Amino acid sequence: MSRLATRFAELRAARRAGLVIFVTAGDPHPDQTVDLMHALVAAGADVLELGVPFSDPMADGPVIQRASERALAQGMDLRRVLEQVRAFRQTDTTTPVVLMGYLNPIEQMGVERFADAAAAAGVDGALTVDLPFDEEPAHAAALRSAGLDSIFLLAPTSGPERARAVAAQASGFLYYVSVRGVTGAGSVDLADVEAQVQALKAHTALPVGVGFGVRTPQAAAQIAGFADAVVVGSAVIEQIEAATAAGTSGPDALRGAVELVRALRAGIETAGGKGR
Question: For residue 274, is it within any domain?
Fold first, then answer.
């Protein structure tokens, strides 16, 4: 059983929603990424989504775009991201790590080579934001042969036929985008999101995580009432960016992000076992 399957089985048995935290590898500094990953887990993250910095992150809002720019300026690339995951695995062998990024760096490495290298480093799955749907089966097959899960996005505009096709190809969990637009954008109509998630669950037994636009413990608690996981990224990175802009460095630069994750976890716990 994969780490993702194991983690979601544990959450289901405990009747708890998971907390998936996204950060960009190399931000605020490449030397801090592994420490940040450990700190986020200690604060309550159940799954880590590690962003692979890219020069044209079209699905990401300005907060994550700036994080990618900061990381790229410090020499981050896909190979260094895999090195960071390998270092994380030296002391954490259980927390699932998913890479989230864009197709170009994977194509440059070669999908089979990427899949093998990612699996060897301790990655558990990949979400490739701009992968055309008609190319997804071959991509997913390469990941599957290396023992990696394929995580796919589903948007509010995805119809039932698309949802069924994506669910049939996916593994690990499905990532439902709660707003129309880029990461961190817009407010979330939670009643509509809940209806969409319940409809999606009719097509799949996979866990469903909800993200994009989740910013507060209160919103996380509401989503935890009907989804299997809450995904938060931009709000966490904003804390890192604010600390960096204020000239804070070292462990202090991570403190705001870690405190937010701790608050998000506390909010999710108030949802209890609803929706599991």
Answer: no
